[in-house]
Amino acid sequence: MTEQRRKLVSEVPGPRSRRMQVIRDRHLPPGLGNTLPVFVDRSDGGIVVDVDGNQFIDLASGIAVTSVGARAPEVVERVRDQLDRFTHTCFLVTEYESYVEVAAWLNEHTPGDHAKTTALFSTGAEAVENAVKIARAATGRPGVVVFEHAFHGRSMMALAMTAKDVPYKAGFGPFADQVYRAPLAYPLRWPTGAENATAEALSALEVLLGNVGPETIAAVVIEPIQGEGGFVVPSPGFLAGVQEISRRHEIVFVVDEIQTGIARTGRLFASEYDALEPDLVVTAKALGGGLPLAAVTGRAEIMAAPRPGSIGGTYAGNPLACAAALGVFEAVVKRDLVGAAQRIEASIRDVLGPVVDAARHAVELRGRGAMMAVEFAVPGSLEPAAEVAARVSARCHQQGVLTLLCGTYGNVVRLLPPLVIDDGLLREGLGVLTQAIEEYA
Question: What distance lies between CA 22 and its chain's CA centroid?
Answer without folding.
Answer: 30
